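Morning, I've got a small favour to ask if you have a moment. The fold is given in discrete form, as structure tokens running alongside the sequence. I'd be grateful if you could look everything over and explain what you see. No rush at all, and the record is pasted right below.
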Amino acid sequence: MTSVNISSSETVWYLTRFSKYSRILRLVAWILRFAYNSRYHNSKRGELTVNEIQIAEKKLLKPVQQESFDDTVIQNKLKSLNVFTDNEGLMRLKTKIVRRKDDENFKCPIVLPSNHLLVERLIFENHTNSCHSGTQVVLSNLRQQFWVLRGRKTVQRVINQCIRFVNSRPLNYLSDDPDDLTPLTPSMFLQDIQTVGIPDQDNIDNINLTRYQQRLRNDLRNRFRDEYLSLLVHQESNKAGSKEVRVGDVVLIGCDNKKRLDCPMGLVFSEL
């Protein structure tokens, strides 16, 4: 495997020359392709492969972590998170869904700092590629592969720098008649028309009701995965300040074969 190091002194040139994260990523991938072809006889040809893009991304993000996560940051900001280093030297977050059958990047996302220019480029491009979506959508998209420290505030800060040309300003006459068609807006041409709630099933035409209900269930599962499961993080259980069980405390007696709601309660009389 070809070894190409991107040190902190070399990160400035591509951040100043390219404003898009994807262009920086492809640039690094082409550099790795050139280095590989210069070293081996079986040269690679054609378009970049998915594997080459993934390798380039790891090469790109590893020095970002090295620059941003010194011993002080690890002790202060990462102490409460279950962070580990994988076999490629990348710091990842161990979530509570590691036993779930899912993508490895989703179960153990790459940890990224909140104050690095490359991370801001990543967030901004995700925001524009998703038709200038809001904080929650961008955060859910990023969470498929990354865990950005102070994620919500960081995404909000980056999004606020965007001057949106996608808006809901009517392009034609806005009628007072409720029976008239909804006026055209620029956002209709760039993203799906937003709806509120679930349409009445009686008004669904030419759609099999069973398939429609199944699609709703699938959408709900996807939202549950992206917006809830993605936020489940292991916390250190023995960190300072945690409450210890004392005499006189009312406690919940755990049972493996019962739900927590059905577990019996007890009173502590003495300590062992």
Remarks:
- The chain has a mean pLDDT of 77.
- The two ends are 57 Å apart (CA to CA).
- The longest strand covers residues 83-85.
